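Retro notes (design track)

What went well: tokenization of the new backbones is finally stable.
What didn't: we kept losing track of which sequence belonged to which structure.
Fix going forward: every design gets posted as structure first, then sequence, in one message. First example under the new rule, 114 residues:
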């Protein structure tokens, strides 16, 4: 597979589709990366972050990145009702994932289980 084939396959997907995929997959990927850092022993979050806020700020930064990418995709693809609805729905889903993964990571990384 050469570069031209990769470029042709990538052209089949719109920027909006890629933005929605980023909005849906960004939070789980960030949470798995943070959990992986803790499980492998590279970072002891309980010692390194006594305020237990690093996980929240990482997830919040990912959410801001997701929002920026979705808003750029909406602006590029046109402001139709279906486009705006799909973009906002993906951002609401990402926000819900942020809250769920923060509670999960607080238990895994800091031992602050509910």
């Amino acid at each position: 597979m050469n570069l031209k084939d990769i470029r042709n396959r990538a052209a089949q997907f719109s920027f909006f589709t890629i933005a929605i995929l980023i909005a849906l997959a960004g939070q789980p990927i960030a949470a798995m990366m943070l959990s992986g850092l803790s499980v492998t022993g590279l970072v002891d979050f309980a010692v390194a972050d006594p305020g237990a806020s690093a996980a929240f700020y990482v997830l919040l930064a990912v959410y801001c990145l997701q929002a920026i990418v979705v808003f750029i995709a909406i602006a590029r693809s046109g402001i139709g009702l279906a486009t705006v609805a799909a973009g906002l729905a993906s951002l609401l889903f990402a926000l819900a994932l942020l809250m769920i993964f923060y509670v999960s990571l607080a238990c895994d990384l800091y031992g602050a289980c509910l």
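Added context from the reviewer: The chain has a mean pLDDT of 86.
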